[in-house]
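Section 5.1 Outputs to date
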Amino acid sequence: MQYHFHSPSEHSIDGKLLDLEMHVVHAMENQYTGEDKPENSQFSNGVLGFLFRTMPDSYFAEVKKKDPKCEIGFHDQFLSDMVDTEMAKTDGKQQPLDMTKFVALLNYNRRWTY
């Protein structure tokens, strides 16, 4: 459906807010919600949240120097590239955001659900 940002983050880790949180909001199809069938889910939306720490470019350059295969900071680099891409568009039309690569590279061992 849409994505939006919270700065500082809406959620915290060990009581500490991070610099940025991105929410990607998904809508469930009517066949899965309680809109037409009471036995179905009462929920109509699902949200993925991604937390970010802001780091200077020099940090990523130093990490890459030490370990060229390291993917640390992927979230930050993806967000930076996404902003650059969106800013480069001059037609003013809203374009879908392709999150396929972003989601494929996530570390699912570092997640929370509720």
